[in-house]
Amino acid sequence: MSNKDLHKSALTTLMNALIESQDGLSKSAQLNLNFDLTVSRPALISKMSGYQSYPASLCVMRSSEHYKAQLRLRVPYSSTCPCSASLSRKALAEAFAKQFKSKQFAGRQSEGQQPTVEEMGTWLASKEASIATAHAQRSFADITLDLANKDIPDFIGIIDLVENALGTPLQTAVKREDEQAFAKRNAENLMFVEDSVRRLHAALSTYYQATYFRVKVEHQESLHAHDAIAEISGSIHR
Predict the structure, then answer these.
(1) Dihedral of the CA atoms 4, 7, 12, 16 (nearest 10)?
(2) What is the dihedral of CA 62, 63, 64, 66, to 10 degrees?
(3) CB-side exposure of 92: number of CA atoms within 13 Å?
(4) What is the C-alpha to C-alpha distance for residues 85 and 219, in angstroms, rounded to an integer?
(5) Is residue 36 within 8 Å of residue 20, measured between CB atoms?
C-alpha cells in the first residue's frame, strides 16, 4: 500500500487489511496520517509565486458497524486589531488638522485660501504622516471537520474556503506592489478573534464534505503578552 496514491478505494482497502491482519483479535482499526500539505500560492499583484505549508492530519476509524473520518488543518493568516486601527486613524486625523492649521498655512487661510489637494497628498505620503500604525499579528485557524463519507476530502478546497472567508492569508514571495495590496487587505478585513470565528462559522456551515465542524482561532498578540483565542463549532446543513 505504501507505493499507492491516497484515494477512496485505497483507504478502504487499507482499513480492511488492517482489521483482517488481526486474525479475529480485533474488529476495528484506526489510522492517523499527519503531514504538511505544501501548496503553490500566487502573489496578490505581481507574477511571483511561492509555496505555503499547512499542517494537516487525517484520522480514519473503521469497525464492523461504523466508518468515521476526521480532518484537521491549520491555516495561517494575518489579523489587524479594529480598535488599534481606529485609534491610529484618530491620531492621523489630529496630526492632519494640526499640520494644516500651522503657521505655514495660517496666513493663506486668513485670506480664504485652502491647502491644495497636492499639498495634502504630499504630506500624507511623507514620513511626518506616519503617526501611528494598527497592531497586527500572525494568526492561526485550526479547523476540524467530521467527514460525511469515505471520500478523500478536498484539502486545498477547504484551505481556499478558509482563506477567502478571512481575506488575509499569509503571503509567500512578494514584490512592493504585493506588500501594498496585502496592507490594503488587512485594512479591509479588521478582525477581533470573535470576528474571525463568525466568518469561519458562516463559511463552513454549508461545507458539503462534512457533517460537523470545530474552529479555534489564535491571534498571537503583538500588543499583549498573551494571545487572543476563540472557538466555535456547529453542525453542517445541506
Answers:
(1) 20
(2) -70
(3) 17
(4) 16
(5) no
* Joined grid coordinates for residue 202: 458562516
* Helix or strand run (H / E) with residue 33: strand 28-42
The rounded distance, in Å, linking the Cα atoms of 88 and 136 is 12
- Phi, psi torsion values for 173, nearest 5 degrees: -80, 135
- pTM: predicted TM-score of the whole model, two decimal places: 0.87
Rounded to 5°, the CA angle 136-141-146 comes to 170
CB 143 within 8 A of CB 157: no
**Coil, helix or strand at residue 169:** strand
Q: Give the C-alpha separation, 206 to 214, whole Å.
A: 13
Rounded to the nearest 10 degrees, the angle between the axes of helix 193-204 and helix 155-166 is 140
Q: Using only C-alpha atoms, what is the Rg of the chain?
A: 25
pLDDT digits (tens, 9 = 90+) for 10-30: 777 788 888 888 777 888 888
Residue found by looking up cell 491549520 in the block: 74
Is 69:201 a contact under the CB 8 Å cutoff? no
Asked whether 117 and 195 are in contact (CB, 8 A), the reply is: no
d(CA 161, CA 175): 25
The single residue listed with the C-alpha cell 483507504 is 11
Burial tier of 32 (Cβ tally within 10 Å: 0-12, 13-18, 19+): exposed
| pLDDT tens string 159-214 | 999 999 999 999 999 999 999 999 999 999 999 999 999 999 999 998 998 999 99
